[in-house]
Amino acid sequence: MSLSVKKAPAVAGGTQQWLSTIVMSVVALLLTLGPTHVQGSCDIFRGKWVPDSSGPLYTSSSCPSITRAENCQANGRPDKGYENWRWKPERCALPRFDARKFLKMMRGKTLAFAGDSIAQNQMDSLLCILSQADTPINLSDRRMSKWIFNSTSTTIIRIWSAWLLHNSKEAVGIAPEGLNKVFLDVPDKTLMEFLPSFDVLVLSSGHWFVTPSAYILNGKVVGGQGWWSLQAGKMQMNNIDAFGASTETIITAVVTNPNFKGIAILRTYSPDHYERGAWNVGGSCTGKVKPLDKAVKDGFIDAMYGKQIAAFKKVVKNYGKQGSKLKLMSITEPFALRVDGHPGPYTNLDPNKKTQRGPDGRPPSQDCLHWCMPGPIDTWNEMLFETIRR
């Protein structure tokens, strides 16, 4: 009895010392690695592009749903180097997309993309990636694009909404009929109707704020883009401010909807790379074959991105638990480097299309906004996978 009583403290003390040593070793290792190595805390949007010889997740011939305008290789683009880069975060790894794992994670769930043609571009990329594991069934109708993967009952949806807000061409005050009216305090009605059925929602907008429009707030005309009436006096809101207001409106409407139980992902502004002018005045991205080492400063893109970040932070702060439904997918800075990833002049099969500058120095008609498939936009979906998983 006396021996066992004496041995017990010795064993306990030794165990405590052993556990203490293990704990201290783990703590030291975590401190050495840095906080971003803790699962879920690494900022996957800070990093660099590195060469990758593993090749794309699909090819222009292995995806039956790839659209003509996105199929750069089939349209005659001569280089393929833009397909062979990976995004490497500073403090962790961004896993290569595993289509079977994604479908398993999304079993019985619905993922929706809402927004403009860039949202379509991302959905098209995801469909191409997932179709390498299972063939989707197209159940689209006039209200939405809809694809179902039967192996896991996973549904992928896209809802077209240029501004993510209610809009109309009817006359409002001094804004004439026929001009787009964007109601900055009214979310898109179709999106809000179907919102409760979504498990994951990806929001995409911004580029339509450069089109001629009038901005309506509280029923009054407060600003415009490419249009303004002298009768209205001083403009209260330009397109950048309107974009900020629109972002706050839509993400607030989503996270405060009591019937929406999923997560909403705000995908930040997709950078374009038109040089020497905008898309409609001879802007070009001809001949770009690799990522930039450093992004070219663009005041407009920076301002649009800043408005999204400000709105995101405000809503997360103001709505507490409801705000936790909201996630940020910050692609703007990484993809500002991917000047090589756009179709440029390679948007169609025309064998006689112009791909070089003419004698007068003017470039051919180009798309330096959307992304080639396969190409950099596939990385968006790797980032999306990781954002959902976390």
UniProtKB/TrEMBL annotation:
Pfam family, one: PC-Esterase
Keyword RNA-binding: no
Compartments where found: Golgi apparatus membrane
Region Disordered, annotated ranges: 342-366
InterPro entries noted in UniProt: TBL, TBL_C, TBL_N
Entry GO MF terms: xylan O-acetyltransferase activity
Ranges where the Trichome birefringence-like N-terminal domain occurs: 41-92
Location (main, coarse): Golgi
Keywords: Disulfide bond, Glycoprotein, Golgi apparatus, Membrane, Signal-anchor, Transferase, Transmembrane, Transmembrane helix
Topology versus the membrane: Single-pass type II membrane protein
UniProt feature, compositional bias: Basic and acidic residues: 351-360
Residue span, Trichome birefringence-like C-terminal domain: 94-386
Record's GO cellular component terms: Golgi membrane
Protein family according to the UniProt entry: Belongs to the PC-esterase family. TBL subfamily.
Protein name: Trichome birefringence-like N-terminal domain-containing protein
Species the sequence originates in: Triticum turgidum subsp. durum
